[in-house]
Design goal:
mainly beta, elongated, Rho GDP-dissociation inhibitor activity, cytoplasm, 10 strands, five-stranded antiparallel beta sheet, single chain, Rho_GDI, 2 domains, RhoGDI_dom_sf
Length: 216
């Protein structure tokens, strides 16, 4: 049974977790969105702010939760909107590789390439608008030649709307090394919240190779 992680974790590419019964067309979603927490009907955030406005303790709590949100610019939409903006690959001694989402593949179909045996981490940037998003999490699943080599669930948390992007950086990890680790990988990345709303569901390919790609 897959274990859900509720702390920051890296999106590791490891061949130590292979399962020959898992192939690329398996239902990688498992329980994502199928067991959404029932939180009651959503209402626009502007309406939330009007509720119990004469209760000082509730008002202070809402102000603390919302932080620097410009309440004059809140819309009438009840559902939160989460937009994943970029995926940045961080590697010591190399420039940050900032990739806009959706990812763009090269002529070989790869969105990016990593050197085998190299240290790296992933950073996501995203915006939240309209309303508070509760229980935002992502799932990252990776296959090599049809065998699942990575299956990770990471809880990010609850975020209020704000104009500036949020960032989340995974822990540092190391790519597998050796001739059998090199080659093409396929992956799926999905962001979902406690209401079961999917904010991103993306498939892509990447490569692990002997050397870093030449700088453009």
């Amino acid at each position: 049974m897959e274990k859900e992680e509720n702390k920051e974790a890296s999106v590791s590419i490891s061949n130590n977790d292979t399962d020959t019964n898992d192939v690329e067309n398996d239902d990688y979603d498992d329980d994502d969105g199928k067991h959404a927490v029932v939180l009651g009907p959503q209402v626009p955030l502007k309406d939330h702010l009007e509720l119990d406005k004469d209760d000082d303790s509730l008002r202070r709590w809402k102000e603390q939760l919302l932080g620097d949100v410009d309440t004059t610019k809140l819309g009438e939409t009840a559902e939160p909107e989460v937009t994943i903006l970029t995926l940045t690959i961080l590697t010591p001694g190399r420039p940050d590789l900032i990739l806009p989402i959706p990812l763009v593949s090269d002529d070989k179909g790869h969105a990016f390439a990593l050197k085998d045996g190299s240290t790296y981490s992933f950073r996501f940037s995203f915006t939240v608008s309209n309303n508070i998003v509760s229980g935002l999490r992502y799932r990252h699943t990776v296959w090599k030649t049809g065998v699942r080599v990575e299956n990770q669930k990471v809880m990010l948390g609850t975020y209020s709307p704000q104009p500036e992007p949020y960032t989340y950086e995974a822990e540092e990890d190391t790519t597998p090394s050796g001739i059998f680790a090199r080659g093409s990988y396929t992956a799926k990345l999905k962001f979902v919240d406690d209401d079961g709303k999917v904010h991103l569901d993306m498939s892509y390919c990447f490569e692990i190779r002997k050397d870093w790609p030449a700088s453009p």
